Amino acid sequence: MSIEYRWITDRYDPLPAMAGDLVQRRVAVICALGPPGVLAAKAATTTIPIVFVTGADPLKFGFVTSFSRPGGNITGIWIVSTVLAQKTTAAGA
Q1: Helix (H, G, I), strand (E, B), or coil: what is residue 58?
Q2: Tens digit of pLDDT for each residue in 13-46?
Q3: How remote is the C-alpha of 87 from its chain's centroid?
Q4: CB neighbours (10 Å) of residue 69?
Q5: Domains and CATH numbers, the chain
Q6: Where are the beta strands (DSSP E) in 1-93?
Q7: Higher-pLDDT residue of 2, 49
Q8: What is the pLDDT of residue 92?
Q9: Sign of CA dihedral 52, 58, 64, 67
């Protein structure tokens, strides 16, 4: 067994080719982080399982058809977070 790593640093245009390479290598599963990676993996295969981790709404971005039944070959974790702002007062306390 081996793990094939692919990553990018500053642009998304290589993602489709990278996902295609993983499909050609017949990997057992593709793990994708963030919308661009998930969408590239989803476009590359309908048979290899895709597991994602994202802060973006998977329904809104079309990763899955529903939360209870994601459908197809894709499932994952949606990390919901909110921004916390420091509470200030007029006195600056």
Answers
A1: coil
A2: 999 999 999 999 999 999 999 999 999 999 999 9
A3: 33
A4: 8
A5: 15-78 (3.40.50.2300)
A6: 30-33, 50-54, 74-78
A7: 49
A8: 55
A9: positive
Whether the predicted pLDDT of 85 surpasses 60: no
**Burial per residue of 4-25, b for 16 or more beta-carbon CB atoms within 10 angstroms, e otherwise:** eeeeeeeeeeebeebbeebeee
DSSP for 22-38 reads HHHTT-S-EEEEHHHHH
- What's the pTM value of the predicted model, to 2 decimals? 0.80
| CA 15 to each of CA 22, 60, 67: distance values in angstroms, whole numbers, following the listed order | 11, 20, 25
Amino acid at 45: T
Distance of CA 29 to the CA centre of its chain: 13
Instruction: Provide long-range contacts, Cβ within 8 A and 24+ apart, for 66-70.
Output: none
